[in-house]
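As a next step, the fold was encoded as tokens, giving this record:
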Amino acid sequence: SNPFDIVLASTKKYPDGTKIGNLDYSKMSERDLIHYFEQYYQTLLKITEWGNFDVLSQLMLPMRYINMENLPYFSIRFCDDLIEKILKIMAEEDKALEVNTSGLRGKLNAILPPVRYLRLFRELGGKYVTVGSGAHGTDSLGSDLSEGISLVAEAGFSSYCYFDQRKPVLININ
């Protein structure tokens, strides 16, 4: 009912109220990691099914807090079925997926989501991708956007978008 340009959806907490960024994942067993990640993707699935948003952001948020030096074995492929369900609903409902470059400024040193999930989204019919820096201050505002756009192109998209009055506006990738 408000004249927003864009509505983002994400979650920053697990269902038990624990903040995703407050856990020390390096001290967890593989079983605990699987538990938390499955909870995260179940929550994102519920948000996606609810659908009253334009862009799903933070598809890979817990990965930002995992130090791959301490957990070199860890993969989230066990959540691929849930992630595919989320991306399929988003594609069917013409929702946009956020590419977030903030992981380049942390321990992960990567843009999220990885290109394989962007490709999957496109293969499932996803049309809209936004690119953001995940800035929480002016020092990182707009950081690494060109790298994010390059990843979008690598995934096979010919454009990314921003929103105006909750409608996607495409920007061609040259």
Remarks:
- The chain has a mean pLDDT of 89.
- The radius of gyration is 16 Å.
